[in-house]
Design a protein that fits this description.
By secondary structure, this protein is α+β, with helices and mostly antiparallel strands. It is 21% helix and 22% strand. Mean pLDDT is 86; it is low at 1-6 and 447-459.
């Protein structure tokens, strides 16, 4: 999809958005056009969308040297990445179930399921043997987690978080679920929800052995790239389930990834969903990410709101409520374009706010001045009259900076480098936009009337 070229920044490296299909390709799909200052001069370059760490993908090309791009050489690298992968052949689950458990093996080196009676070439490889039926159907519990935080990090949801999210989705009436980088949810759906359908889009090619071609697509979420064209067709067909009704998307991207790229992918999927189903309503989406990334997400996806639910992971030292977890609980939340008033949270750790008409965490107190339940980090916020907003209780107001911040901070002027979503000018956020009233009035003319606020409900 061609888009108007624009530049957004993050740190010292900026992303220049354009038509990805026209970009050079590396083994992970179309590359991204970045920009950075080199000795006072801004230079553009192409690099891998999946990983900026050149140890994982060494593609690098200055934009002015594009004419020297060795397409044939990189096509060989692409063929090498795709070589030997035949989803139909790798997916041997149905045959493997018939094999005695003592003879079942998953080879980590070759990333495939093996019947040891027929093939002994893996005997000296790193592998897991004697797989039970349960393990075959729950690959996330036997596959070592990938740990590159900028590419394909796998922090797996806890059982309680999976069950809470599934209860949430079913209450909302969803029956067809797109799982982008959420294998644990897909796994749960495949094994425990016969009345629901799901498809997994994930960068981890090991899933070829455990999920069939209709349930899994090898996919790069940072550039909306399907490694095989037939997988793209499978996804398009899934988008049209029940003419687009009762379908939703849930994604759990690597926390080190660029939010602009993820947002661009979600927008692309949303546009494709609307076009294929000939509808005007947006695809319901749930983006799982740390609470402190809210400004970046809202700047790219202003219609998204943060749900005050703490998502827990079983294989991350801090992202859970156990004895060794973070004192304030997991910092990971759910951002969604679904009306927060329609989402119920568990009674044990959450409560319903009559004024806000939504569920929030127990420690989240309603602020009359802000007219909102303002806590985000897992502690009860306090209101600062000078800032006209609520802040963390450990912060204090700094007269020099003109804002509340940490006590031991270094006073400086904070500069926002990205462009404002409201007016498209750089240097400020939407919340501080001088054209808020002007642009907002235009948007309200095209916005449908919101349903009247419901009266207090019984829970």
């Amino acid at each position: 999809m061609k888009r108007k070229k624009q530049t957004t920044s993050e740190g010292h490296i900026e992303i220049v958005n354009g038509d990805l299909e026209s970009h050079p390709q590396c083994p992970h799909g179309p590359t991204i056009l970045f920009s950075r200052n080199v000795k006072g001069t801004k230079r553009n370059f192409f690099a891998c969308a999946a990983s900026r760490d050149r140890k994982h993908c060494n593609f690098f090309l200055w934009a002015e040297n594009r004419s020297t791009f060795k397409k044939d050489v990189w096509q060989q690298e692409i063929n090498k990445e795709l070589g030997g992968i035949n989803h139909e052949k790798l997916f041997s689950m149905q045959d493997m179930i018939k094999v005695p458990p003592a003879m079942r093996l998953f080879c980590h080196k070759c990333t495939e399921l093996v019947d040891e009676r027929e093939n002994d070439q893996h005997k000296n490889h790193n592998s897991i043997r004697k797989l039970t039926d349960y393990q075959l159907k729950h690959p996330t519990e036997i596959l070592p987690a990938l740990e590159n935080t900028k590419k394909e990090a796998q922090y797996l949801f806890s059982k309680s978080s999976v069950e809470t999210m599934m209860d949430m989705f079913e209450r909302l009436g969803y029956r067809h679920i797109i799982c982008v980088g959420t294998p644990r949810i897909h796994e749960h759906l495949q094994n425990h929800c016969s009345n629901l359908t799901s498809i997994l889009l994930d960068m981890d090619k090991r899933f070829h052995s455990f999920f069939g071609p209709q349930q899994y697509c090898w996919y790069n979420m940072f550039n909306h790239h399907f490694f095989f064209e037939e997988a793209r067709d499978v996804f398009r067909n899934f988008l049209q389930n029940n003419n687009g009704k009762n379908i939703m998307l849930v994604t759990d991207p690597p926390f080190g990834g660029r939010t602009e790229l993820i947002a661009n992918t979600l927008n692309t999927i949303n546009e494709e969903y609307k076009k294929l189903n000939d509808v005007r309503t947006d695809l319901p989406m749930f983006w799982i990410y740390p609470y402190f990334m809210e400004p970046q997400i809202r700047n790219s996806m202003p219609e998204f709101r943060m749900l005050d639910y703490k998502v827990e992971y079983e294989n991350h030292a801090m992202f859970h409520n156990g004895l060794k977890g973070r004192k304030q609980g997991s910092p990971v939340r759910i951002f969604t374009n679904v009306d927060l008033r329609s989402i119920k949270l568990p009674d044990d750790d959450y409560k319903y706010c009559d004024v806000c008409d939504k569920w929030v965490a127990i420690e989240n107190k309603h602020c009359a001045a802000c007219n909102d339940c303002t806590s985000k980090s897992g502690v009860t916020y306090v209101h600062c009259s000078l800032c006209s907003r609520c802040v963390k209780p450990t912060w204090q107001h700094c007269e020099k900076c003109g804002r509340c911040t940490q006590k031991d901070h270094i006073c400086e002027q904070l500069v926002f480098h990205k462009e404002c979503y409201n007016c498209k000018e750089p240097g400020h956020k939407k919340a501080d936009c001088p054209k808020n009233s002007e642009v907002g009035a235009k948007k309200r003319l095209n916005q449908p009337n919101l349903k009247p606020k419901k009266k207090k409900r019984k829970h």
